[in-house]
Design goal:
By secondary structure, the protein is of the alpha/beta class. The chain is built from 14 helices and 13 strands. Among the domains are: 135 residues, Leucine Dehydrogenase, chain A, domain 1 (Rossmann fold, 3-Layer(aba) Sandwich); 156 residues, NAD(P)-binding Rossmann-like Domain (Rossmann fold). Strands 10-9-8-7-11-12-13 form a seven-stranded mixed beta sheet, sandwiched between helices. Strands 1, 2, 3, 4, 5 and 6 form a six-stranded mixed beta sheet that branches. It starts with 6 loop residues before the first helix and ends with a helix. Bound molecules: glutamic acid.
């Protein structure tokens, strides 16, 4: 899904940089560079017209030394096992940077959801979960939403797993509807966390968030919430794009109107006319203060990094910048708040949801948001401090913290048997 870029090679290159800083033993480095488990499934679904179609899906668990594995399920036509593995590895570091007791996992099904009915997606979900349920469990591996999936899909996952157990197991998946054991604040959590990270980053570079010009690539769950909260907090959202394309207005865009009236339309937010149309790649190069890539991987590369004008990049997506881009952005003095820190809000509130499900005791939304903000600020401060100490970029600093926590847990537990 990231064109020609090998995202697993990218994730491994990032790990190697951190491993060098940490002088990680080569055996341990090998352990961390590979996933502990990869399950590939091919399964049939009877379509509405009676035809049978076979789909390919994956569930990859990268590392469980700090707790059960955790990570979303992606439905997209371009997924493959290597990309899913890279995403699982990033989940491991993300949970460790936020210091929540999970390892990393990711799942995916190769499917273009737009081509199928709701009933077909339900059947696909139920069959996929049945194929992978041998490695799922509230104490072992807990999925969540990602690109192409939502709370309804999580409800089907919970129901399918529970039907096979014979009793309801809400803690086996997070991002569920609130009335089925979901958490208040989970839908907004990733975008909310992105803005907490952006505001903290602004303080460190002396930029006023209030009045800052923001560009958001992607208008899914992460991008749309990040754009709305940015506007609520006084920033001027000048550019936004969705899968169809982008729009730009230096005076600012009406984010809430775009969310409520234009997203989900066939022509996307481009149907809003009081703005200049731009392509997804032109959008990244717009004149702005803060750029939030919140779409897919490998958008900022060696080819366009030099043309980026933002002072600050806050990664809402997983893996939006390649290692080549990182070097160029660092040399240009652009601060990049990396994905494994910036978009951790989703999995942090997933952790809260899981805790609430295990205890059958549910929190008020303010408590969720306050605790989320506290963890985001604390993680940001730790990563920023590591960046100063090691005189490096923020991604490397976050990896140093995340990889070290996972390595320490592995060493303390020891290698079985
Ligand atoms: N898919 C999200 C991510 O990439 C959320 C994962 C979760 O909540 O487990 O972080």
């Amino acid at each position: 899904m990231s064109g020609h870029v090998d995202v697993l090679a990218m994730a491994r290159e990032q790990l190697s940089v951190a491993a060098n800083y940490l002088e990680l033993d080569s055996g341990l480095h090998q352990v961390l560079s590979r996933p502990m488990r990869q399950l590939i499934v091919n399964f049939p679904v009877v379509l509405d017209n009676g035809e049978v179609m076979v789909f390919e899906g994956y569930r990859v668990q990268h590392n469980s030394s700090r707790g059960p594995t955790k990570g979303g399920i992606r439905y997209h036509q371009d997924v493959d096992v290597n990309e899913t593995t890279a995403l699982a590895m990033w989940m491991t570091w993300k949970c460790a940077v936020a210091n929540i007791p999970f390892g990393g996992a990711k799942g995916s099904v190769k499917v273009d959801t737009k081509q199928f009915s709701r009933r077909e997606i339900e059947k696909l979900t139920r069959r996929y979960v049945t194929e992978i349920n041998i490695i799922l469990g509230e104490r072992s591996d807990i999925p969540a939403p990602d690109i192409g999936t939502n709370a309804q899909v999580m409800a089907w996952i919970m129901d399918t797993f529970s039907m096979q157990k014979g009793y309801t197991v809400p803690g086996v998946v997070t991002g569920k509807p609130v009335d089925l054991g979901g958490s208040l604040g989970r839908v907004e959590a990733t975008g909310r966390g992105v803005i907490v990270a952006a505001e903290e980053a602004c303080k460190t570079i002396g930029l006023n968030f209030n009045g800052a010009r923001v560009v958001v690539q992607g208008f899914g769950n992460v991008g749309s919430v990040a754009a709305s909260i940015a506007a609520q907090h006084g920033a001027i959202v000048v550019g936004i794009s969705d899968a169809v394309g982008g729009i730009y207005n230096p005076k600012g865009l009406p984010v809430d109107e775009l969310v409520h009236r234009y997203s989900g339309r066939e022509g996307g937010i481009r149907e809003y006319k009081d703005a200049q149309p731009v392509s997804n790649s032109e959008l990244l190069e717009l004149d702005c203060d803060i750029l939030i890539p919140a779409a897919i991987a490998a958008q900022i590369t060696g080819d366009n990094a030099d043309k980026i004008k933002a002072k600050l990049i806050v990664e809402g997506a997983n893996g939006p910048s390649t290692p080549d881009a990182d070097k160029i952005l660092h040399d240009k003095g652009i601060l990049v708040v990396p994905d494994i820190l910036a978009n951790a809000g989703g999995v942090i509130v997933s952790y809260f949801e899981w805790v609430q499900d295990l205890q059958n005791f549910f929190w008020e939304e303010d408590a969720v948001n306050e605790r989320l903000t506290k963890i985001m600020r604390h993680s940001f401060a730790q990563v920023h401090e590591a960046m100063m100490i090691h005189k490096t970029d923020m991604r490397t600093a976050a990896l140093i913290i995340g990889v070290k926590r996972v390595a320490d847990a592995t060493i303390r537990r020891g290698i079985f048997p």
